[in-house]
Amino acid sequence: MYRRQLLRSACLAAALIAGAATAVQADTLDKIKKDGVLVMANGGAYPPFGYVENGTMVGFDIDLGNEVARRLGVQPKWEKIDFSGLIPALNSKRVDLLVTAMTWTAERAQRITFSTPYYNSGIAGGAKPAANIVKANDIAGKVVAVQIGSAGERFVRDLGIAKEVKTYNDFLLAFADVEAGRADVVVNTLPTVRYNAARRPSKLAVSETWDKRDVGINTRMDDTRLLEAVNAVLADLKREGFLDKLDAKWFQ
């Protein structure tokens, strides 16, 4: 009898845990729909994906997030958070989604989920033409500027051949230090390096792409229903050509 009681207690505990897990999965999407607001975070210092212009957040990611909110039938609300604080902000439930050009890495995928990719990118470098930075190995012995927590920083550290890795909270500060000669090369995703190199007076030379990266929207690990809803919206946006229009607007 004692063993049967233990078994019943164990089964009851397992059922309660399973029920709680199901409730967690339902909570975020249901709460968003009930409140009528989707809270999203963006680093706000990564043009053209997301940056502040005249006190307002603008960029590829901002347009995308606003459209996701519209199609979910709710209002968008944005929070600007330093890149290094984005994942903690999501997992602490300060925000519902990250829409901030987050590239997939195995380490990040253990902490947050990634939607189907909405942008295909890759790592590249920007440097003064005389530095002749073309291949990834050309950063050997160089002072490399990277945004802290970015895919560019991880790539450079994993390569392990730079003379020094200088980190910045703001990508544009990293870019400016290369322009000023305080670093030799800035490393980040190709679209962002290329976009800023074309629009700044120094006209840094942009390397070829050194690898391939997928960019996705991020949810918490247990928000499966919200992730499914986001993926459904992204599939519609891709099929309808909305993502191609955003690419033309912000990168061409």
TrEMBL record:
<dbReference type="InterPro" id="IPR001638">
    <property type="entry name" value="Solute-binding_3/MltF_N"/>
</dbReference>
<keyword id="KW-0732">Signal</keyword>
<protein>
    <submittedName>
        <fullName>Amino acid ABC transporter substrate-binding protein (PAAT family)</fullName>
    </submittedName>
</protein>
<feature type="signal peptide">
    <location>
        <begin position="1"/>
        <end position="26"/>
    </location>
</feature>
<feature type="domain" description="Solute-binding protein family 3/N-terminal">
    <location>
        <begin position="37"/>
        <end position="251"/>
    </location>
</feature>
<dbReference type="Pfam" id="PF00497">
    <property type="entry name" value="SBP_bac_3"/>
</dbReference>
